[in-house]
Amino acid sequence: MALLSPSLVRLGAAPATKEQAISDAGSMLLAAGYIDAGYVRSLLAREEVANTYLGNGVAIPHGMVQHRALVKRTGVAILQVPAGVVWNEGQVAKLVVAIAAQSDEHIDVLKRLTRLMGDEDALRRIIDARDPQEVVAALGDGAAPRAAEPAAPAEDFPEAFAIALEYPTGLHARPATRWVDTAKRFGSEIRVRAGVESASAKSLVALLQLGIRAGQLLHVSARGPDASAALDALRRIIVSLVPEEQAQARAAEQAAKAAASGWTPRASPISIPGVGASPGLAIGAVRQHRARRLDPTDAPRGPEVDGALLDAALEAVAAELEVLSVETGKRVGAAEAGIFRAQRELIRDPALVRSTAVHVVSGHGAAWAWRQALDEHAQGLRSVPNPLLAARAADLIDAGERVLRRLMGIDGDALEVDAPSILLAEDLSPSDTATLDPELVLGLCTAHGGPTSHMAILARTLGVPAIVAAGGALLEVEDGTPVILDGLLGRLYVQPSREDIESARRWQADEAERRRHEAELRAQPAVTADGHRVEVAANANRPDQAAAALDAGAEGVGLMRTEFLFLERASAPDEEEQAAIYRAMVDVMAGRPIVIRTLDVGGDKQVPYLDLPREQNPFLGIRGARLCLRRPDLFEPQLRALYRAARHGPLSIMFPMVTTIEEVEQLRGLAERVRAQLGAPRVPLGIMVEVPSVAVMAEQFAEHVDFFSIGTNDLTQYTLAVDREHPELAAMANSLHPAVLRLIERTVAGARVHGKWVGVCGGLAGDPLGAVILVGLGVDELSMSARDIPAVKARLRSVTLVAAREIALRALGCETVAEVRALEAAVDGAGTEHEAGSLPGAFPGALPGALH
Predict the structure, then answer these.
(1) Which intervals hold domain HPr (predicted)?
(2) Structural domain harbouring 475
């Protein structure tokens, strides 16, 4: 098979040690271009934590899963050692098979190898072979060795259970060893069946020869005196290893990302893992920030006096927050300024004020009463099932403690940093983050929090690398300790070596130069190396953001989210206010394309004054188009405002969260009625593709709309059944998942049947690798955050359309996100020199309509 080549077989080798044997085999893979140099070290590192000796003189060294990104393409190197080399005590290897695997392509080789181990004559022929081709023939596609245990249909034993294997990379040696160790504790026979093939659970070789892949259904059965106990134990070990295997897969994806970003530590520094919140590297000394909790004594002065003190404190803090909002808007942006307008509303919440008043009337002091009410309401927010809404408890505490300081008569607890540092804290408030000086605060790392917190949002906007949810170990790092913070992978490296610090500084310099060069070319169109032009637009919510996006290189606005007009206020904007905003957007764009999405609230965007029903699962409830069709009092004024703005320049209207064709017909009908009443011009009417039902039926939907815009964030969430705001699961909601890519491919294919264009306005469009794959799938327009435009344009200019299509096909053929992310290396080399079919390992087939 393609993984085996005579050039990767060395006969008559005589390594003195196991380490030399592994290094020699790894060097063969390196010289043939299958791996980067670091993977040889990974092969050796694996041996320190696991024994790769299979038995019968065969060893299978393979690298650590977290270093999979160092594999350029899957390959196998074979070292024949006729005299043998001591592997471990009592173990002598005569055949060393080094495996470098991007995913599980090597399983077929491993399967044949384990079967050979049951055929001593066949194995001896390989060990004594005088021609490398004999070895290839024995392990290649034509090989048909006698199996160690016949792979024939077998009846299950009487007691049994069925289970789908949830290990992302299938069953490999490490977890299989744990199964075998567990099975051997029992006297009963235990059988594992995968399809028609079965094996003893007490034989590592037999289990591996089954070639069990991720998701495969297994039947585990037992016969004997302790069969029930044996099955219970085996089920427990199979299930208990799932989190560990999934963590290994995530580590592999992180390593792939690291390879894409270009920096990984060369030594092995102590690292504290967290969740990446703002990308980039920061190098410096630690400064611990320990916030103090304010616990006032209960000193009542009488209800009238305490009531007046509370009113004065609330009024003063509201004014403070207004000033902070204005300053943040000037310094960071209008959207970020809204954080503090929202905080102002939080402390004015009638229920919070009423609860404080009850305590005061009951004879307690204003400060003590406010503290109690504040904690009660913050706890109430934390208990809300929606993680994004629960995260707003931090905003309430942030603003609430401003009030408390006023009531206690103490100065502000400002965060002061007097020297360039990497700030570590249990958590950071939005106020702390918004007032930081990026010249002094090189990076941020918190023990708690999530990637959707306002601290994380502000850090990304300020361009400060940041990590959240790093746990209690973070707080034990002493002030002044040198660290490297990787905000992309979410790692804090403690006391890195001088070599790592120097390489990180080189990476920073290279990255700064790359950004400078991309910025210089940002106004140039995104034209692939073979002349295919891609429209690159921006996601912008307000006219000032649209103007900034044009300066960043945007050719239009691919998504204007109108819900931001409805948030952080006490009542809905009327038709006049909306018409003025939409007209201003049209004026700023000056004839360039603009897609305006109608109101999309519900889910993670709740608007109190709309009095929406409380739902168990708001993401599956009344949101987007469903709300618009139920609330004509909101929807029709918005349509009127949009059509009024359309008299002054081109715009398109897009409906969110559509799930049925009946909804499309109703939405178009309402839009046409409003347009006719106003005598306004016709405009393109499109829909968001956010749920699998629309992607699967794209050809049918395309008959009823003028365009599609794929919202990859929600499409990913609904496809993978993962709440993208969940603090523990959010990392799984990755839009590079092959299932999501196949739905995008299906959408494009359906649109092409009716000649409709397709855009993408989700986060995947702003990922350079994602952009290449989307263009390869036939997407016409990419819309993203303005800051991502220069990098995406540069990446698209570096590839040909032919190469992008081949990379997209390979992505459709992948099984995991890590495999897709590993295609970054192919993109790096996919310039004009690539012709059709030239990329190694290109996926040989595709879903219908993949290329357009």
Answers:
(1) 158-245
(2) 270-291+415-502
